[in-house]
Amino acid sequence: MNTLTLEQLNSLPLAEAVQRLDGLYEHSPWIVETALQRRPFVSLAAFKHGMVQVVAAAGREPQLALLRAHPELAGKAMVDQSLTAESSNEQSKAGLTHCTPAEFDEIQRLNAEYNARFGFPFILAVRGPRGMGLSKAEIIATLERRVQGHPDFELAECLRNVHRIAEIRLNDKFGYYPTEGHQVWDWQEALAQHTDAAYAGTGQLTVTYLTDAHLACARQIQANMLAAGCDSATIDAVGNVVGRYESDSYPRIFDVSQGPISSKTLLTGSHYDTVRNGGKYDGRLGIYVPLACVQALKAQGRRLPYALEVVAFAEEEGQRYKATFLGSGALTGDFDPAWLDQTDADGVSMRDAMARAGLDVNAIGAIRRNPAEYQGFVEVHIEQGPVLNALDIPLGVVTSINASVRYVGEITGMASHAGTTPMGQRRDAAGLAGRTLRHSRWRLGRHRGAAASAPWLHQCGARALHLFAGFACSVGCAARCTGGQSTHRTAPDLRAAWSAPQPHPHHASQRGAQRARMAATLGSGGHRLGCAPAPHAQWRGARRHEAAHHPAAGHVVCARPQLRHQPQPAGVHHQRRHATRGRCV
């Protein structure tokens, strides 16, 4: 098959171009024809997005018709051999043409259930994320999960899969194979074999600071950097893995007598530790995409006018010790020596863990970077929100950051029987927690770009539906805002929401009070390059504040934190983590 080129896409007569692109969307040539009227396209990706926009603008009924034009997986059309050539190839790659009788019956049953529930067939890009084909087990598991979905979600999910099918077919027509992307994928899959001992054999990825798995990751990343073509790859005093691909002024022979390199360096990278049961690509994508660039430059024998420094930051997530950004903080001189005396859940101090890993705590200060020697910092990161999905685009540029302050609170209620206690006399801790969190969201909603969320709510004590617990209800609450200074302004409003009286909605004849204690606070502002520096928030102490309210009203009593604000100096690693959390395009 003759492959198409971008020049042909833009220059062929409309009818011929539509004919050459036939089959991208199942029995729906109108999508390609409408999109081609927007020629010329600067890239194949721009054409893909143009077709997505055509479908989005078409409205619900044409969208449903598009979905209904697709055959069922392992359905009647496959049995009758009446599939289009594209669909037949895809179902064959996934092994659906060779189902066992039991597999075929299961897929047929689920297809019928799905169609009856939603009114359109189940659609899945069965060639998978790499175009090689999903297994039958993966297809059946996905169908079992999605048949329980919400109709609106499933409509959107089917449309996303339709566009993915069209993308794979378009790549075939243009002979495009994402070699570098697959290399990045393979690197990360290989790195994901290392997980902390407690999670080994569970299928969950957890890599916390300076565990055996963490140290194994560092060694593997170092080896990958050297294999990709970095001129050097070292592990520094906090466990960062630093690879350098020198500039075009780099000596062609390794003669240190020729002196240091004069051009400035572009810094890039991300973290390789994870949260508990984390993802394989969070953070690590920002390490391996630059390595793919280094590998391509090395293969072409090219050097850039500046050095490229790729840093795999050792720690960001704060999972083992109550300190975050240990890796990037050391590069900006923001590593607090007091952290070394912190202990983990097993009583191991950070100082001992670093010594056990062969790291020299006395050398931490020496790895601080001089901002004058750097052009800036760039990071590739997985989006952890729905913005790009909603826009149907694969890539975006960060325009603002999210800084946060976090609180953990505890509310004590009064034990009671749910069936015999009148509504006006109930002292349910979870009820007050819900009202407090709702009030928190309302207060922060008055600030532009601010929001409050409740990551978790856990009521201890009662384990039956007919009881109210008399014990503590633990609540987590976080305030987030785009920009650290904004978060600095909204944090007092969140504390006020927790310390203000929370009246019961019923008559004032009720007695007693519900008490809450702010148990702890965690928080750090985003302080990243190109953004307004934000303060770190730290405990300096807490004092108990008792507020007298009308005896008929429930109220909370909180240990109100006194925060000491430390504006951070401008530094190299500005715009690291929080630039990857809040995303606008």
Task: Describe the protein's architecture and organization.
This protein is α+β, with helices and mostly antiparallel strands and 585 residues long. Helices cover 36% and strands 16% of the residues. It has 18 helices and 13 strands. The strands form four sheets. A five-stranded mixed β-sheet has the order 1-2-4-3-5. It has a four-stranded antiparallel β-sheet with strand order 8-10-6-11. α13 links the parallel β3 and β4. The two termini are 38 Å apart. The C terminus is likely disordered.
Question: Would you kindly provide a brief summary of this structure?
Answer:
The protein is an alpha+beta fold and 585 residues long.
Please identify the structural class as seen in this structure: alpha+beta
**Strand count:** 13
Share of residues in strands: 15-25%
Low-confidence stretches: 501-585
Distance between the termini: 38 Å
Helical residue percent band: 25-40%
Strand order, main sheet: write it out.
Answer: 1-2-4-3-5
How many whole angstroms does the radius of gyration measure? 28 Å
Mean pLDDT: 79
Quickly count the helices: 18
Principal-axis shape: globular
Strand count, sense and closure of the main sheet? 5 strands, mixed
Task: Outline the secondary-structure elements.
Elements: H1 6-11, H2 14-20, H3 29-36, H4 44-58, H5 60-68, H6 76-79, H7 85-93, H8 101-118, H9 136-146, H10 151-174, H11 179-191, H12 212-228, E1 232-235, E2 241-245, E3 265-271, H13 285-300, E4 307-313, H14 326-331, H15 350-356, E5 374-378, H16 387-391, E6 402-412, E7 416-417, H17 429-445, E8 450-459, E9 467-468, E10 472-482, H18 484-499, E11 515-524, E12 535-545, E13 558-567
Parallel strand pairs: 3-4, 3-5
Antiparallel strand pairs: 1-2, 2-4, 6-10, 6-11, 7-9, 8-10, 12-13
